[in-house]
Amino acid sequence: MEELRLLNDWKAQKLWKLLDKKWELAEYKKQKAGELLNVLVIGAGPCGLRSAIECALLGCRVVLVEQRDRFSRNNVLHLWEFVIQDLKSLGAKIFYPKFCTGSIEHISIRQLQCILLKAALCFGVQIHDSVTFVQLLFPKKIHNTVTGFRASIEPKGHILAEYDIDVLIGADGKRNTIPGVFLLEFLIEPKGHILADYDIDVLIGADGKRNTIPGFPREEMRGKLAIGITANFVNNKTPAEERVPEISGVAYIFNQAFFKEMYAKTGVDLENIVYYKDDTHYFVMCAKKQSLLDMGVILQDNDDVSKLLSSENVDQEALCRYAQAAADFATNGKLPALNFAKNHRGNEDVAMFDFTSLYSSKCSVRLVERMNKCLLMGIVGDSLHEPFWPTGSGCARGFLGVLDTAWLIREYGLNKRGPLEMIAERESIYRLLAQVTKDNMNKAMNKYTIDPRTRYVSLESTLQPEDVVQIVSSDNPRLGKMLKSWQPPQL
């Protein structure tokens, strides 16, 4: 890293000035807060990479593992203003000069990952692609020495196989590979990876809906049947394409004439539609089931949503025609060609999904102690709280969860408060996440840090230490006794 600082290029100097300003924030205690912690982050999505950056700023030794070997997600994220400011503070405009230059503030997931990857590497994060977190291994005694918590990974023999972990953060979405407190086996693929012997203090699960970290029970919020469609078309960036206006969001209840005309002319019946122009022409819409049946997209009706939208019950070519018709009508036929971009499998990048049910984890962290070794586990991003896409809140709430988790890791590293008190504070803050909107956060966005008080207007401790006893597990008689007999202090 020191060699990079010697570059005379003006962009490099401007970047280091930005990153140094972040590095020197008082909250990070000159990188002393996390200097004793080994952190493993699972997943290189936006929230996983953002978590890794925060842990590095705290002074932690940070390792991130990602199952895939490339960034290939074309879908586009809407960005709240504080997220834009946050990314600019990490050099987004230097890494990607076109960042947020359009009429609507958004970015493709792939481009966002590229920006955060570069920033993470500048802060010293160690990143391993093509590595799968399998399960967690809890401490054991070898030759009179007790190992720390470790990850079993694939491929076998990887350098991470011997990496002791202090904090584990799951950002792998619904997959959630982080185990519960009684399932502490940690495997990583490929076998024999260097991480196999890496002792872990903190484990962060950030692998989206996949969420490979079990032990974080989820709550389901069900609504009426809602079927979403995403479609990405090739953007050749021609003058004709540049002139087509974006659509920040059109809903049926506000523009019934538009949707009725669309249905009359194309047979496509929608609740809403959004169009963002980025690396691709990105469309996302909510379709009515009957029109999907009428247009032959869904072959047979079924009350079971999983069977209704199963690959066997969907005509992929009809789905492509449906999405093209919607996109063509919404843009008044002004996009010269609607050729699908390719997804990571090399197929047309169009997908249909169910968002009738949204899931949120019942807790955001867990603390486990075995043989006097402690592990803090957390989940962020879609693993923690699945967003309702029409609100455009996914990336914003994801980043808020990342910053809140970083604050907990800071407090954990400083070790000036008891574990139950710290976890109760974190869980109280987590309860605010689903209620956050653009309008009810602190207005001074330039002052946002990992300290929750800089971001949330109303910050109350709704949970007490006795309320979080069930998410802490210990074989230490001292702590075990405290967990069983804890009493609130007398006022």
From TrEMBL:
InterPro entries the UniProt entry points to: F-actin_Monoox_Mical (IPR050540), FAD-bd (IPR002938), FAD/NAD-bd_sf (IPR036188), Rossman_Mical (IPR057494)
Predominant subcellular localization, coarse grouping: cytoplasm
Keywords: Cytoplasm
Gene Ontology molecular function: any one: FAD binding
Cellular localisation: Cytoplasm
Name of a matching Pfam family: Rossman_Mical
An example Gene Ontology CC term for this record: cytoplasm
All residue ranges annotated as the FAD-binding domain in the record: 38-73
Domain [F-actin]-monooxygenase MICAL1-3-like Rossman intervals: 225-354
Lineage: superkingdom: Eukaryota
Keyword Hydrolase among UniProt keywords: no
Stored PANTHER family: [F-ACTIN]-MONOOXYGENASE MICAL, CALPONIN HOMOLOGY DOMAIN-CONTAINING PROTEIN DDB_G0272472-RELATED
Name of the featured protein: FAD_binding_2 domain-containing protein
Originating organism: Haemonchus placei
